[in-house]
Amino acid sequence: MNKQETKEKLRNKIIAVIRCEDSKKAKLIANTIIETGIDVLEITFTVKGAPELIKELKAENPKAVIGAGTVITLDQAKEALNSGADFIVSPCTIEEIGAFCREHNIFCSMAAATSTEAYNSHKYGSDVVKLFPGEYINPGIIKGIKAPMPFIDMMPTGGVDNNNIKAWFDNGAFAVGVGGHLTKGIDETNLDVLRARCEALINAAK
After folding, report:
1. Which end of the chain is less enclosed by CB atoms within 10 A, N or C?
2. How far is CA 166 from CA 15, 92, 130, 160, in A?
3. 15: which strand partners?
Protein backbone atom coordinates (compact mmCIF):
# COMPACT_ATOMS: atom_id res chain seq x y z
CA MET A 1 0.00 0.00 0.00
CA ASN A 2 1.09 3.55 -0.61
CA LYS A 3 0.93 6.08 2.20
CA GLN A 4 -2.46 7.51 1.20
CA GLU A 5 -4.07 4.07 1.08
CA THR A 6 -2.62 3.25 4.48
CA LYS A 7 -3.81 6.55 5.92
CA GLU A 8 -7.37 5.82 4.90
CA LYS A 9 -7.19 2.38 6.51
CA LEU A 10 -5.96 3.95 9.77
CA ARG A 11 -8.67 6.63 9.98
CA ASN A 12 -10.70 6.33 13.22
CA LYS A 13 -8.89 3.11 14.13
CA ILE A 14 -7.50 1.69 17.36
CA ILE A 15 -3.87 0.74 16.75
CA ALA A 16 -2.64 -1.97 19.11
CA VAL A 17 0.99 -1.37 20.06
CA ILE A 18 2.89 -4.58 20.78
CA ARG A 19 5.90 -3.98 22.99
CA CYS A 20 7.57 -6.99 24.62
CA GLU A 21 10.94 -8.65 24.15
CA ASP A 22 9.82 -12.18 23.34
CA SER A 23 8.81 -12.60 19.70
CA LYS A 24 6.77 -15.76 20.32
CA LYS A 25 4.73 -14.06 23.03
CA ALA A 26 4.33 -10.95 20.86
CA LYS A 27 2.97 -13.04 18.00
CA LEU A 28 0.47 -14.81 20.25
CA ILE A 29 -0.75 -11.47 21.63
CA ALA A 30 -0.92 -9.94 18.14
CA ASN A 31 -2.98 -12.76 16.68
CA THR A 32 -5.35 -12.71 19.64
CA ILE A 33 -5.90 -8.98 19.23
CA ILE A 34 -6.62 -9.38 15.52
CA GLU A 35 -9.08 -12.20 16.23
CA THR A 36 -10.90 -9.96 18.70
CA GLY A 37 -11.53 -7.25 16.12
CA ILE A 38 -8.63 -4.77 16.32
CA ASP A 39 -7.00 -5.19 12.91
CA VAL A 40 -4.28 -2.52 12.99
CA LEU A 41 -1.09 -3.43 14.85
CA GLU A 42 2.21 -1.67 15.51
CA ILE A 43 5.06 -4.10 16.18
CA THR A 44 7.76 -2.14 17.96
CA PHE A 45 11.45 -2.64 17.39
CA THR A 46 11.76 -3.48 21.09
CA VAL A 47 10.41 -6.91 20.10
CA LYS A 48 13.31 -9.22 19.23
CA GLY A 49 13.15 -10.08 15.54
CA ALA A 50 10.50 -7.42 14.87
CA PRO A 51 10.98 -7.39 11.05
CA GLU A 52 10.56 -11.17 10.83
CA LEU A 53 7.47 -11.00 13.04
CA ILE A 54 5.93 -8.33 10.82
CA LYS A 55 6.48 -10.56 7.78
CA GLU A 56 4.85 -13.53 9.52
CA LEU A 57 1.86 -11.57 10.77
CA LYS A 58 1.22 -10.04 7.36
CA ALA A 59 1.37 -13.44 5.69
CA GLU A 60 -1.04 -14.95 8.22
CA ASN A 61 -3.39 -11.96 8.43
CA PRO A 62 -3.61 -10.44 4.94
CA LYS A 63 -6.57 -8.21 5.83
CA ALA A 64 -4.82 -6.64 8.82
CA VAL A 65 -2.65 -3.52 8.69
CA ILE A 66 0.72 -4.24 10.30
CA GLY A 67 3.30 -1.54 10.89
CA ALA A 68 6.62 -1.01 12.64
CA GLY A 69 7.04 1.10 15.77
CA THR A 70 9.87 2.55 17.86
CA VAL A 71 11.80 3.17 14.65
CA ILE A 72 14.63 5.50 15.63
CA THR A 73 17.36 4.83 13.05
CA LEU A 74 17.49 4.85 9.27
CA ASP A 75 18.63 1.21 9.30
CA GLN A 76 15.51 0.25 11.26
CA ALA A 77 13.36 2.15 8.77
CA LYS A 78 14.97 0.18 5.94
CA GLU A 79 14.38 -3.09 7.81
CA ALA A 80 10.75 -2.14 8.36
CA LEU A 81 10.26 -1.40 4.67
CA ASN A 82 11.94 -4.66 3.65
CA SER A 83 9.70 -6.58 6.05
CA GLY A 84 6.63 -5.28 4.25
CA ALA A 85 5.50 -3.01 7.08
CA ASP A 86 2.47 -0.92 6.12
CA PHE A 87 3.61 2.06 8.18
CA ILE A 88 6.49 3.39 10.28
CA VAL A 89 6.12 5.06 13.68
CA SER A 90 8.81 6.82 15.70
CA PRO A 91 8.68 8.08 19.32
CA CYS A 92 10.41 11.29 18.22
CA THR A 93 10.86 13.37 15.08
CA ILE A 94 13.85 12.23 13.02
CA GLU A 95 14.34 14.08 9.74
CA GLU A 96 16.09 11.27 7.87
CA ILE A 97 13.32 8.81 8.74
CA GLY A 98 10.68 11.23 7.49
CA ALA A 99 12.64 11.77 4.28
CA PHE A 100 13.05 8.01 3.81
CA CYS A 101 9.31 7.44 4.19
CA ARG A 102 8.53 10.18 1.69
CA GLU A 103 11.01 8.74 -0.79
CA HIS A 104 9.49 5.27 -0.52
CA ASN A 105 5.85 6.39 -0.24
CA ILE A 106 5.30 4.66 3.11
CA PHE A 107 3.03 6.11 5.80
CA CYS A 108 4.97 7.84 8.56
CA SER A 109 4.04 8.99 12.06
CA MET A 110 6.65 10.75 14.19
CA ALA A 111 6.01 11.99 17.70
CA ALA A 112 5.32 15.42 19.15
CA ALA A 113 4.01 16.84 22.43
CA THR A 114 3.66 20.58 21.65
CA SER A 115 2.36 22.71 18.80
CA THR A 116 5.88 23.48 17.56
CA GLU A 117 6.87 19.83 17.68
CA ALA A 118 3.65 18.86 15.88
CA TYR A 119 4.41 21.34 13.10
CA ASN A 120 7.97 20.06 12.76
CA SER A 121 6.81 16.44 12.76
CA HIS A 122 4.41 17.28 9.92
CA LYS A 123 7.05 19.34 8.11
CA TYR A 124 9.60 16.52 8.20
CA GLY A 125 7.29 13.84 6.87
CA SER A 126 4.58 12.72 9.26
CA ASP A 127 1.33 11.87 7.51
CA VAL A 128 -0.26 11.79 10.97
CA VAL A 129 1.55 13.25 13.98
CA LYS A 130 1.91 10.88 16.93
CA LEU A 131 1.02 12.67 20.20
CA PHE A 132 3.36 11.10 22.73
CA PRO A 133 3.44 10.31 25.57
CA GLY A 134 -0.34 10.58 25.57
CA GLU A 135 -0.75 10.11 29.32
CA TYR A 136 0.72 13.57 29.87
CA ILE A 137 -1.37 15.35 27.23
CA ASN A 138 -4.96 16.58 27.45
CA PRO A 139 -7.25 15.50 24.59
CA GLY A 140 -8.11 19.17 24.04
CA ILE A 141 -4.65 19.74 22.56
CA ILE A 142 -5.91 18.39 19.23
CA LYS A 143 -8.57 21.07 18.82
CA GLY A 144 -6.06 23.66 20.04
CA ILE A 145 -3.45 22.72 17.44
CA LYS A 146 -5.91 22.17 14.59
CA ALA A 147 -7.45 25.64 15.06
CA PRO A 148 -4.43 27.40 13.50
CA MET A 149 -3.09 24.30 11.69
CA PRO A 150 -6.08 22.28 10.41
CA PHE A 151 -3.82 20.38 8.01
CA ILE A 152 -2.19 18.43 10.87
CA ASP A 153 -3.80 15.11 11.81
CA MET A 154 -2.93 13.63 15.19
CA MET A 155 -2.81 10.21 16.85
CA PRO A 156 -2.37 9.99 20.64
CA THR A 157 -0.40 7.01 21.90
CA GLY A 158 0.21 6.13 25.53
CA GLY A 159 -2.34 6.49 28.30
CA VAL A 160 -5.32 5.84 26.03
CA ASP A 161 -7.85 3.62 27.83
CA ASN A 162 -11.57 2.90 28.24
CA ASN A 163 -12.06 6.10 30.23
CA ASN A 164 -10.65 8.57 27.71
CA ILE A 165 -10.69 6.97 24.27
CA LYS A 166 -14.01 8.59 23.34
CA ALA A 167 -12.74 11.99 24.53
CA TRP A 168 -9.72 11.64 22.25
CA PHE A 169 -11.91 10.85 19.25
CA ASP A 170 -14.44 13.55 20.17
CA ASN A 171 -11.59 16.09 20.20
CA GLY A 172 -10.53 15.10 16.70
CA ALA A 173 -8.01 12.26 17.02
CA PHE A 174 -7.33 10.71 13.61
CA ALA A 175 -6.61 7.36 15.31
CA VAL A 176 -5.36 6.20 18.70
CA GLY A 177 -2.48 3.94 19.73
CA VAL A 178 -3.02 1.63 22.69
CA GLY A 179 -0.30 -0.52 24.23
CA GLY A 180 0.00 -1.41 27.90
CA HIS A 181 -3.71 -0.91 28.59
CA LEU A 182 -4.32 -3.98 26.43
CA THR A 183 -1.19 -6.06 26.88
CA LYS A 184 0.14 -5.48 30.40
CA GLY A 185 0.47 -8.77 32.28
CA ILE A 186 -0.76 -10.84 29.33
CA ASP A 187 0.78 -14.18 28.37
CA GLU A 188 -0.41 -17.52 27.02
CA THR A 189 -2.25 -18.29 30.27
CA ASN A 190 -4.71 -15.39 30.27
CA LEU A 191 -5.57 -14.53 26.68
CA ASP A 192 -9.21 -14.36 27.72
CA VAL A 193 -8.31 -11.22 29.69
CA LEU A 194 -6.77 -9.70 26.57
CA ARG A 195 -9.90 -10.49 24.56
CA ALA A 196 -12.08 -8.86 27.21
CA ARG A 197 -9.86 -5.75 27.24
CA CYS A 198 -10.05 -5.45 23.46
CA GLU A 199 -13.83 -5.78 23.43
CA ALA A 200 -14.23 -3.24 26.24
CA LEU A 201 -11.98 -0.73 24.45
CA ILE A 202 -13.84 -1.13 21.16
CA ASN A 203 -17.14 -0.52 22.97
CA ALA A 204 -15.78 2.48 24.87
CA ALA A 205 -14.78 4.14 21.60
CA LYS A 206 -18.32 4.06 20.22
Report:
1. C
2. 14, 25, 17, 9
3. 40, 177
pLDDT digits (tens, 9 = 90+) for 89-134: 999 999 999 999 999 999 999 999 999 999 999 999 999 999 999 9
Average pLDDT over residues 31-59: 98
Q: Which residues contact 199 (CB under 8 A, 6 or more apart)?
A: 36, 37
Contacts by residues 75-81 (CB-CB < 8 Å, ≥ 24 positions apart): 76/45, 77/101, 79/50, 79/51, 80/45, 80/51, 80/54, 81/106
User: For 72-93, what is the mean pLDDT?
Assistant: 98
Q: Is the dihedral of CA 167, 171, 172, 176 positive or negative?
A: negative
Strand partners, 14: 176
Phi/psi of residue 129, each to 5°? Answer: -80, 130
Domains and CATH numbers, the chain: 3-198 (3.20.20.70)
Sheet holding 40-44, edge to edge: 154-156, 129-131, 107-112, 87-90, 65-69, 40-44, 14-18, 176-178
